[in-house]
Amino acid sequence: MRVNASFHPVRRSALEALHARAGAHWRSDTLRWPLHYGDAAQERAAIRETAGLIDLGPSEKLSVRQSDLVSVLGKAGLDFKPGQITQNLMGRTRVEVWGIAPDEALLVSLQAIGLSDYLDSKEILNVSVSSALYLLRVVGPRARRVLTELCPLDLGENALGPDRLAHTAVANVPVTLGRQDFDGLPGFTILVPRDYAAYLWGGLLGNGRAHGLQPTGTLALERG
Amino acid sequence: MSSGPDRLTARPGELINRDRRIGFHFDGKRYDAYQGDTVASALAAAGVRAFSRSFKYHRPRGLLCCAGRCPNCMVEVDGIPNVRACTETARDGMHVRGQNAWPSVRSDALAVFDRFDRLLPVGFYYKTFIRPRWLWPLYEGVLRRLAGLGRINSESRPELHPRKRHLHCDVTIIGGGPAGCLAALEAAAAGSRVVLVDDQPRLGGHLRLQAASTSGDDRIAGRSGIQAAAKLASLVASRPEIEHLSNATAFGLYEGGLIGVSQGNTLVRIRARQIVIATGAAENPLLFENNDLPGVMLGTGALRLAQLYGVKPGTSAVLLTDDDHGWRVALELIDAGIPVSALVDRRSDEPEAELTRLVREKGVAIHLGGRAVRAQGRGKVNGVIVVSNGRRQRLPCDLLLMSGRPEPVFSLALHDGSKPRFDEQLDAFVPPAETAGIRVAGHANGLLDEAAVPPSRRRPEPAEGGGGLEAPSSGRRDLDGGASGEAGSTGRKSFVCVCEDVTAKDVGGAIREGFDALETLKRYSTVTMGPCQGKMCHALSARLHAALTDQSVGVTGLTTARPPFQPVTLAALAGPHLSPYRQTAMNDRHAAAGATWMDMGEWKRPFMYSTVEKECQAVREAAGIIDVSTLGKLLVRGVDSGEFLDWLHPNRFSDLRIGRVRYRAMCDDAGIVLDDGTIARLGEDRFFVTTGTGTLDAVEQWLTWWLAGSEREVTVTNLTSEYAAVNLAGPRARDVMGRLTSMDVSPKGMPYLSAIEGPVAGVPAIILRIGFVGELGYEVHVPADYGAHLWDALLEAGRDFGLEPFGVETQRVLRLEKQHLIPGQDTDALSNPLEAGLDWIVKSEKPDFIGRDALARVSANGRRNLLVGFEIVGDGIPAEGAAIVDGGRPIGRVTSCKWSPALRKAVGLAWVPASNAVPGAELVIRLGVGTDGKTTRGRVHPEPFYDAPGARLRS
């Protein structure tokens, strides 16, 4: 091997092995997240009829912790609401702002890189947690039923409305749970530390299969 | 092989499907059943009368309540003990066994105990088997075999798949009878989210047993009970706001509106703002000799068999009662096809004329002012001795029914600690006044027959069920039969409590011995303490106690009701097996390499890949890599970070230069070592802090605690999950690194204790030039999504140098050769850094830091015990925690000791008195943690065994 050989880093999902076993088709050779598991049409149908479990894929995530976040993030054109998820557009890039706590925001972008530089330019102190936190989404008519077996929180319409988030436990793992419906289907996004992701994936599927929960690629969330 | 002769023609409300047959085994014999049968209904239809043997006397017991309340039909189903046959649905191929009997329920050798009841008086376990003391081991063996209920098969565990559900709602209604259904409909109409919990397969409660027409609510009045039940069920089903849990038992009410419900193998946890308890009323058994003979049943129990399963439990019944309720049961039974030859009513007056007329029309012999004295029969009832108007006569029967006046069932309402009230007018206990969030409705509330209860005594409750079977009239009652006693009747076999075989005589005996308060009587005699938790005997024992102590039942009171109301399996309470574990980014790589695993808290870490010897050799002679992703990682930022870290640690970090890393150990206020790790200064106000694997949470909380309310401008971000980390160590480590980065890795460019950010294998990394195993080392942190990529790149780059992965066990051997301590392993809640050999980190000249005063005191008073290295010069390897002894007395202890393949000896760390902590001092060390006396010899060796000057580490 030559010194200083050029490398082609492969970014791998914490769930790579589980996805591979389920027959995942990757986003690319260097981004090991499943687009689908062989039959995207079936997966689209599944989230409309029962429920799908989705590893939302490589994203840039930045943690911003300070007081007065409403005005600080406002400077960068971002809407911050504690206890809620807001959708923002920065140029053409969609940025979600999760109001984790009154003094803590999590910025999530599934498309962009360079968000951190932009915040730096606005002198907003930010720390990358892109690998640390995973977004697993349960979506479909049976999503709520699947989660009520694993989560003590009231997931009712009036308790956790659209775009609300709460700190709770799913399958005994501490998580942040956000309500994110998709196309009129109930959906819940679980924000979980990376090292628990494989356990949680297995726990969700193991208990959810009885209700028709199946692994679904991100393609199922795109208009087909 | 038929489903037996004892089936009635099809009943309108039956649960069985007569077109579908299944088969199962009971005590080795095959029985047929219809789909929808319970185990009990199928066996009863086949003529089985004895279902179990009683707890103490091994008397045969038959079906009694058929409603899951009594203990009589508890059997073992497919290896699971104490399953109630009357509620367990029969499944094709299931294996059912009788319990508490040897060799079988039909002929139980232990029934001999029934003859020796005089030797087993109430409270016998406090009096007998005490002398002579030396015989106790013999007694104990026998008693242990005989005691207990059911046998747990420890060989094979049944496949249980318990599940859990969390439900939240505005109103939870417990009980699916008319009151519960109507309350649910009312709440749903008001827009509430409702959960309706019912322990039956279908809604309707007692209406399902009633062919007579219903009164009460307009929606059901005038229909037969069975039709009314169906109507209620369809009304409930039509409301999407109502979630109906069928075959579900609410077993307890807990704080915060939490209701525990078991539904099959699922534990449902319901949180409700408002709870309505509509658990109805339950018929009471009566007291007379042999009231436990198979064939003696509750009237509603027989009716249940008939109406729901089309089973005919007898061909000639005598019904005993003290209430109009019994008359109605008699009519229903006759209507269903079960002949009732005689009705014996304790009261001297006939009930209302219409009811009397209907019963007389059926040709039932009526004995007013009569009571049963004794049931007759061997193993099965064949007659009853009745006394009425001073005349004693025998009434032949093969079914003897007890329809004692129903009592409201409301134990759940008492789980919050409130006490029931005795209503003199009703002559019954009624629930306490409505408490916050809990209401009791229908018969459970003592809301009885409209006509019989004056309006002033009615409970204020909207949801009234149909006035039906279980609507008793008022009127005081005396006790029946052998209890307060006919001359010559001793109450010897008049069972108050069938669970624990407590007789009327036992209760009398206990009271005479001084246990005259109900709560002490309960504890002494164990009445109400069996599997039915007082459902069959609560009222009976209270009334008997009142009669024997000559006071009113209101004064006697009831014993405390506590959860669980109905037994619930431990598996259901535990729920599904969900124990979280954490995996590093390289987990799949370790698995593919054949690693054995160890648990560190929730983390899964590779224990070993090949052998300690091989792995040690690779690290000492070439290079090794270990996954250290589990280390806690915190990013501390802000202008006050340096000062804050100085405050938290005995050593100093504000003077750490950018690009340098330093060892850290943290103490609490008492100077006790909490944790260790490193701190790297990555920028002016940016510190990268690592902690131990298990101590991260405590350290993070500690930092957050000290920042709360502080003026310091510091933020702490937990990056443990963000970074995967690998420690590369060994003489060839630099060569490996050189292949993975374009940065200068020379001793000058990347010297010992430097901290550099730059690309490794094409990935942005933090590189710390440190090591835990005493070799040239690099700790490389990369974003965890690239962890596997880094691992692959390191293995590839190091292959031709002989690089090997190594596990935690090898790391522990290597660090012992260097005498590096691990907080928590080698230190405990009394260890300070001055005695633990970390005195070099304590900068007592610093202005202040946590633990400073405590450490100053240790310095002033002198060190008493020290953590020192030692080598074993005798045989064996002492266990961790083994004592170091002097003249047989412990003076210290071993914290770590392992065999070092390189040194060809066992080495370790131990706490010893300061006087023994001198080079070469001999130690006598026990081998085991126990006190079996086997010892070995060791010798104190304060210097590291390997590379004492540390030249390799710094190279």
Word description of this protein:
The complex is a heterodimer of chains A (224) and B (955). With 224 residues, chain A is α+β, with helices and mostly antiparallel strands. Helices cover 23% and strands 34% of the residues of chain A. Chain A contains 6 helices and 14 strands. In chain A, the strands form 3 sheets. Chain A has a 6-stranded mixed sheet, sandwiched between helices. The longest helix of chain A is centred in the C-terminal third of the chain and has 15 residues, at 194-208. The model of chain A has no long low-confidence stretch (mean pLDDT 93). By secondary structure, chain B is of the alpha+beta class. Helix content of chain B is 21%, strand content 28%. Chain B contains 22 helices and 46 strands. In chain B, strands 8, 9, 10, 11, 12, 13 and 25 form a 7-stranded mixed sheet that branches. In chain B, strand 45 and strand 46 (935-940) form a beta hairpin. In chain B, helix 6 (299-309) packs parallel to helix 7 and helix 15 (612-621) crosses helix 20. Mean pLDDT of chain B is 90; it is low at 449-477 and 480-489. The chains are: A alpha+beta (224), B alpha+beta (955). The interface between A and B is large, with 51 and 51 residues.
In a nutshell, what does this entry contain?
The complex is a heterodimer of chains A (224) and B (955). Chain A contains 6 helices and 14 strands. Chain A is of the alpha+beta class and 224 residues long.
Summarize this structure as a short list of keywords or feature phrases.
heterodimer, A: 224 residues, alpha+beta, 6-stranded mixed beta sheet, 5-stranded antiparallel beta sheet, 23% helix, B: 955 residues, 7-stranded mixed beta sheet, 21% helix
Number of helices of chain A: 6
Instruction: State the end-to-end distance of chain A.
Output: 45 Å
What portion of residues of chain A is helical?
Answer: 10-25%
Low-confidence stretches of chain B: 449-477, 480-489
Count the DSSP helices of chain B: 22
Q: What would you call the quaternary organization?
A: heterodimer
Mean pLDDT of chain B: 90
Strand content of chain A: 25-35%
Taking the sheet with the most strands of chain B, its summary is: 7 strands, mixed
What is the radius of gyration of chain B?
Answer: 38 Å
